[in-house]
Design brief:
This protein is mainly alpha-helical and 197 residues long. The protein has five helices and no strands.
Length: 197
Amino acid sequence: MDEAMELEARGGRWAPWLFLDDPGGDPPAAAPPAAGGDAGAAAIDKGPPAAAESAEATAELEDLRATHDAALARVRELEQRLGERERQLGERDQQVSQQAAQLQAAQQQALVSHRAALVAQHGATAVPELIAGATIADLDASVAPAKAAFSRATEAARAALQAQQVPVGNPARGAAQAAALESGSALSKIAAGLSQS
């Protein structure tokens, strides 16, 4: 029997007698198998290689455990760093929001102050209600239309006043009317006054 076939027939286990020069493939008489027949041979076959395989498997298992523990420690470290970065980003977002609110309040205050300055400067020649805008440039640009509206309103008021005829003073009294009032009684003076109105 061929040595490879013999090895295969024994389940791929190592058998030291397969490598002896005996052409029959049987174990030599000097090295008989232990008592118990095939069971003893199986025990010899499993001996040293099984212990070596077990040691290799144990070493490999320990290596895998060490690799796993190292990977787990690295994951925990990265999770901790990620949590720290997220906390820092949250703080920065809060700071940015606060600064944006402060900036918006400052811009609004600047608009109110600039509008008040424009109204004080041009209030006598412009309509204050028309000086308005969402930006400083809009406020500056609204001054010209406010002045134009004031000029139109002033011209319209002047034209309306000129169209009205207001008497300069009391109309002159006639001589007869004046004499009657001076010589008349109080009652006649009242009656004359009521008749004129």
